[in-house]
C-alpha cells in the first residue's frame, strides 16, 4: 500500500494497455478489418509499442526508487547483544 | 491582477476547457450531429457505467492509488446471475436487484477483508477476480443458454434503468424535463453562493461576487442547455437520475463528511493517518466494499441497455473507470482528486467515444485516439508530480 509502488503499478497498467492497443491494431490489420493504410497502421503500432515500453520502463524506475526510499526510511535493526561498549 | 485571476482560473479548469474544445471539435466534424437531442441522451446512457464505476474507483484511488482490476469481469458475472434470476427463474425485479446487491456486498466484504486485514496487495486480490469472474460468468451463460447469452430482460427492469420519466413523443418539448433542469440550475446557483457565504463566515478566502456569479451562471446555463436538448428527445432518462444521484452522494461524502476526509488522509500519508487515530484498515475495507456495491449498481443500466447478458459484457470497464479518474485529475499516488474531476474526465472520454462513433471512424483510428488520450494523461501525471517536487 505504499504510494510509490502503487503509482508505479498504475503507470505499468497504462503502459501495458498502450501495448495492448498496438496488439489490437496489429490483429485488425492482419485480419483485414481496418481501412487504415498499412503503412500508417505500422507507424502507429511501432509508436504505441515504443511509447508503452517507455511508460513501462518509467514505471519500473518509479518502483525501484520507491523501494530505495523505503529502505532508507527504515532504521537499521538494533544489535541484540552489543558488547562493544562493555 | 485581473490577468493573474484569469490565468489561475484557466489553470484550475484546464480539463473543463479541454472538454469544451473537444466538444466543439466534434461539433464541426459531425456537422452538428453531436448537438442533436438524441446524442445527449446517448452520451448519458452509453457512459452511465463509467460515472458509477468512476465514483467507486475514485474512492479506491484516494486511499493511495489503489485500483480494482476485477470490476469489468464482475459486471459480466453479475449480469449472468441477473439473467438467471430474472429471465430463467422469473424472479421479480425488486427481489433480483436485492439478491444481486447482496452478492455485491458479500464479494466486497471478502475483497475488503483480504486487502485491509490480510494485507494482500489490491493488485493481486483484484487480479484474481479479473481472471476468474469472466470465466465463471461465461460458464453460467453457456450452461443455461445454447447461444451463450440470456435475453430479453423484463420490461419493468428495463424501464427502471433505461426508461424515461414522464415520457413524450420524440420532437415534442417535454416540460417536466425542462423544469427539472431549471430546478437543478437553481440548486447549483444557491449552493455556489451558500458555499461562498460559509467560507466568508469561517474566515477563509472566498470567490468575489463576480466570480461566484460567473461560475454559477456558466454551470446553470450548461445544465439548462443539456436538459432543454433532452426535453426534445422524449424526456428525462432514468439513467441520468441514477448517475446524478450517485455523483451527488459521493460529492457530499468526499467533501462534507469525516469519513470522506479520512480517504484523503489515508492516501496522503497512511502512516501519519494511522498515528492520528484514523482506522486505516477500516477505510481500505470500506473502499473495496463500496467498489463492489457500485459495480453491481453499474451493471444494471448496462444490461438494461443491451437487454442481454453475454460473455463479453464489461470488457475493459476497469480501464474506462481508471482513465476517467486519471484524466479527471485523480492522483495516481492517492490523496488528491474530486468527484467533479472524475465526472469531467468521464464526460471527456464519453464525448470522444460518441464523436468517433458518430463520424464512423475506423476502429484502429479509435484505438489511436484512446492511446493518445491515455499517453497525455500519463505525461500530465508525470509533469505534475515533477512540478510538485
Describe the structure.
The complex is a heterodimer of chains A (86) and B (389). By secondary structure, chain A is mostly helical. In chain A, 76% of the residues lie in helices and 0% in strands. Chain A contains 2 helices and no strands. In chain A, helix 1 (3-31) packs antiparallel against helix 2. Chain A is rod-shaped, with a radius of gyration of 22 Å. Chain A starts with a helix and ends in a 13-residue tail after the last helix. By secondary structure, chain B is mostly helical. Chain B has 2 domains: 14-161 and 243-379, Orthogonal Bundle (ABC transporter involved in vitamin B12 uptake, BtuC), CATH 1.10.3470; 175-231. Chain B is built from 16 helices and 4 strands. In chain B, the strands form 2 sheets. Chain B has a two-stranded antiparallel sheet with strand order 1-4. A two-stranded antiparallel sheet of chain B has the order 2-3. In chain B, helix 3 (37-62) runs parallel beside helix 10. Chain B is globular, with a radius of gyration of 21 Å. Chain B starts with a helix and ends with a helix. Chains A and B meet through helix 1 and helix 2 of A and helix 14 and helix 16 of B.
Overview in brief:
The complex is a heterodimer of chains A (86) and B (389). Chain A is mainly α and 86 residues long.
The overall pLDDT average of chain A reads 82
Order of helices and strands of chain B: HHHHHHEHEHHEHHHHEHHH
The most extensive contact between chains is:
A-B, 30 and 32 residues
Q: What about the largest sheet of chain A? A: none
Q: Using the alpha-carbon principal axes, give the shape of chain B.
A: globular
Chain-averaged pLDDT of chain B: 90
N- and C-termini, Cα separation of chain B: 27 Å
* Overall strand count of chain B: 4
Low-confidence runs of at least 5 consecutive residues of chain A: none
Question: Strand pairing plus helix content of chain B: what structural class?
Answer: mainly alpha
Amino acid at each position: 500500500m505504499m504510494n510509490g509502488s502503487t503509482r508505479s503499478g498504475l503507470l505499468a497498467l497504462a503502459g501495458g494497455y498502450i501495448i495492448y492497443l498496438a496488439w489490437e491494431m496489429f490483429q485488425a490489420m492482419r485480419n483485414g478489418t481496418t481501412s487504415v493504410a498499412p503503412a500508417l497502421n505500422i507507424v502507429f503500432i511501432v509508436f504505441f509499442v515504443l511509447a508503452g515500453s517507455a511508460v513501462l520502463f518509467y514505471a519500473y524506475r518509479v518502483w525501484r526508487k520507491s523501494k530505495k526510499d523505503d529502505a532508507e526510511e527504515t532504521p537499521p535493526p538494533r544489535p541484540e547483544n552489543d558488547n562493544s561498549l562493555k | 491582477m485581473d490577468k493573474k485571476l484569469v490565468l489561475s482560473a484557466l489553470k484550475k479548469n484546464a480539463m473543463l476547457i479541454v472538454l469544451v474544445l473537444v466538444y466543439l471539435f466534434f461539433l464541426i466534424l459531425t456537422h452538428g450531429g453531436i448537438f442533436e437531442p438524441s446524442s445527449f441522451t446517448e452520451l448519458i446512457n452509453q457512459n452511465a457505467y463509467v460515472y458509477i464505476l468512476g465514483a467507486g474507483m475514485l474512492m479506491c484511488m484516494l486511499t493511495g492509488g489503489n485500483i480494482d482490476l476485477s470490476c469489468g469481469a464482475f459486471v459480466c458475472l453479475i449480469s449472468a446471475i441477473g439473467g438467471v434470476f430474472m429471465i430463467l427463474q422469473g424472479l421479480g425485479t425488486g427481489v433480483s436487484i436485492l439478491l444481486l446487491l447482496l452478492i455485491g456486498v458479500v464479494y466486497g466484504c471478502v475483497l475488503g477483508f483480504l486487502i485491509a486485514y490480510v494485507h494482500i496487495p489490491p493488485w493481486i486480490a483484484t487480479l484474481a477476480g479479473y481472471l476468474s469472474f469472466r470465466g465463471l460468468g461465461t460458464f453460467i451463460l453457456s450452461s443455461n443458454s445454447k447461444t451463450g447469452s440470456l435475453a430479453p430482460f423484463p420490461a419493468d427492469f428495463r424501464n427502471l434503468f433505461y426508461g424515461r420519466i414522464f415520457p413524450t413523443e420524440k420532437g415534442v418539448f417535454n416540460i417536466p424535463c425542462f423544469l427539472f433542469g431549471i430546478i437543478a440550475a437553481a440548486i447549483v446557483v444557491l449552493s455556489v453562493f451558500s458555499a461562498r457565504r460559509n467560507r466568508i463566515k469561517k474566515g477563509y478566502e472566498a470567490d468575489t461576487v463576480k466570480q461566484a456569479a460567473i461560475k454559477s451562471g456558466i454551470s446553470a446555463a450548461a445544465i439548462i442547455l443539456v436538459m432543454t436538448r433532452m426535453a426534445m428527445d422524449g424526456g428525462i432518462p432514468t439513467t441520468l437520475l441514477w448517475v446524478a444521484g450517485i455523483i451527488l452522494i459521493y460529492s457530499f461524502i468526499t467533501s462534507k463528511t469525516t469519513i470522506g476526509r479520512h480517504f484523503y488522509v489515508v492516501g496522503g500519508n497512511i502512516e501519519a493517518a494511522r498515528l492520528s487515530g484514523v482506522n486505516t484498515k477500516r477505510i481500505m475495507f470500506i473502499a473495496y466494499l463500496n467498489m463492489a456495491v457500485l459495480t453491481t449498481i453499474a451493471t444494471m443500466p448496462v444490461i438494461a441497455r443491451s437487454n442481454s447478458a453475454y460473455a463479453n459484457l464489461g470488457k475493459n470497464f476497469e480501464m474506462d473507470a481508471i482513465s476517467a479518474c486519471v484524466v479527471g485529475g485523480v492522483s495516481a499516488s492517492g490523496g488528491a482528486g474530486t468527484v467533479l474531476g472524475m465526472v469531467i474526465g468521464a464526460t471527456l472520454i464519453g464525448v470522444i467515444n460518441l464523436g468517433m462513433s458518430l463520424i464512423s471512424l475506423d476502429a484502429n483510428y479509435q484505438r489511436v485516439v484512446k492511446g493518445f488520450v491515455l499517453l497525455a494523461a500519463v505525461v500530465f501525471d508525470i509533469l505534475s508530480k515533477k512540478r510538485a517536487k
